[in-house]
Write a structure and sequence with these properties.
Layout (H helix, E strand, L loop, with lengths): L5 E5 L5 E6 H7 L3 E10 L6 E6 L10 E2 L2 E3 L7 H13 L6 E11 L5 E13 L12 E7 L1 H10 L8 H5 L4
Parallel strand pairs: 3-8
Antiparallel strand pairs: 1-2, 3-6, 4-5, 4-9, 7-8
Amino acid sequence: MTATEYVVLVDENDHEIGRAEKMAAHEKCLLHRAFSIFIFSAESPKKLLLQQRALSKYHSPGLWTNTCCSHPRVGEEVIAAGERRLKEELGFTVPLKTVGWFHYTAHFGNGLSENEVDHVLVGTLSEGKRIEFNTDEVHATRWVTLEELHQELTAASERFTPWLTEALRWVE
């Protein structure tokens, strides 16, 4: 049996104001803390590791997004949470740094929503590193240049998560 997951509720300035069960937060559109990780290649030209969300995800299944996204646990620092989720989802960990945060809201066809203060984290990894992803979380991964990603976002934005474009602004 899986333990109940909680998210950290925050105000518009990212000050903690409580906690809520994860699914309840997404059903009620409660403002909570999250993070989006961007892992770039150590080699040139610089490429970004994208993930395609697992087809069984509770929202945005099968959509392409940044390297890893999730929520810190109650009492967990954002960078520590990011390093934990990289290992859980993609089988590796690298040092991360924070580059900023933003607030966004997105509503999905299944009645769930995201209302998040999203911290943007970055790190680097060799493109040759073998990625052993968790198939419960990730359907596929691929490396793209930022130019290629922008072309794809322009041509078919519906293939990507709603937070990706805003988060991408923090890493360019």
